[in-house]
Amino acid sequence: MNETNCQAFERRGTYQVLTHKLLFSHIIANIRFLKGSAILSYAKGKIVTRRIGFCVLITLLLFSVMSLVAAQDEPVASNLNNPRHIAFDTDGTLYIAEAGQGGDSAGKGPYGAVKYGETGQISALTTDGEQAVIIPNLISMDAAGEIEGVTSVLPTADSLWATLGMGLTEGLKAGQHVSAVVQYDKTSGDIKQVIDLGAFETQNNPDKGSELVSNPAALAFDKEGKLYIADASGNDILTWTEKDGLQVFAVWSAEQGTTQSVPTSLAISPDGDIYVGFLGGFPYDANSARIEVLGADGKLKKTYSKLNFVTDILLATDGTLYAVQLSDAYGDLGFNPDAGSVVKVTDSGTEVVADKLSSPYGIAQSKDGQLFVSTNALGATDSGSVIIVGGA
Question: Does the first or last residue of the chain, that is N or C, have fewer Cβ atoms within 10 Å of its Cβ?
Answer without folding.
Answer: C
